Amino acid sequence: MLASFDLLSAFVLFAFVSSITPGPNNTMLLASGVNFGVRRSVPHALGISLGFGVMVLAVGLGLGEVFKMWPPLYTVLRYGGAAYLLYLAWKIATSGPMSSDTTGKRKPLGFWGAAAFQWVNPKAWVMAVGAITTYTPAQGYVVNVIVIAALFTLVNLPSVGIWVMFGSALRNLLRKPRAVLLFNVAMALLLVISLYPLLFVESSFS
């Protein structure tokens, strides 16, 4: 188990701050809350938290070492992730106004899509690697990795949920189609800006 109460407290604080601060996940959840409301965005939020927990577990159990042994694998992941993030940004930017969703044709990002997105999210990699390298004692390592992954999931879910609720609260202020369009374009631009560390900052695996 984690070595001390102080270490556990420090990790929970790290998990909370890194989960609730802006990033690709929270930008998309904010947009989802505005466009679809809380209920329809729940699978998206669950996919983020559970998908990220699996990612932390995988990194802790050796996936990071695989990327260090074969850096081209991470390069493929990096640029594939950039392409997928641009696609998501385009989908957000071209979303219609809320009033046009009466047919049910527009759908929020689902559980599996959100879970898969964690593997191409640059902030998620920083969070996962930071959790394993900084807060996981060597003694009882495997058990500690499992505890870290579980705790991160528990802290992450309510943290990202706040962004969904904030977006839902903005729905009444964004009833006009032009206001929703401007909001969605702004969210899409923030996603594109978030590509900077993914593409232009040297990774720890190269």
From TrEMBL:
The UniProt keyword set, sorted, is: Cell membrane, Membrane, Transmembrane, Transmembrane helix
InterPro entries, per the entry: LeuE-type
Q: Where in the cell is it found?
A: Cell membrane
Q: What is its main location?
A: membrane
Question: What is this entry's stated membrane topology?
Answer: Multi-pass membrane protein
Highest taxon above the source species = Bacteria
Glycosyltransferase listed as a keyword: no
Q: Where are the transmembrane segments?
A: 46-64, 141-167, 179-199
> What Pfam families does UniProt report for this protein, alphabetically?
LysE
PANTHER family assigned to the protein according to its UniProt record, in alphabetical order: ARGININE EXPORTER PROTEIN ARGO (PTHR30086), ARGININE EXPORTER PROTEIN ARGO-RELATED (PTHR30086:SF20)
Q: What is this protein identified as?
A: LysE family translocator
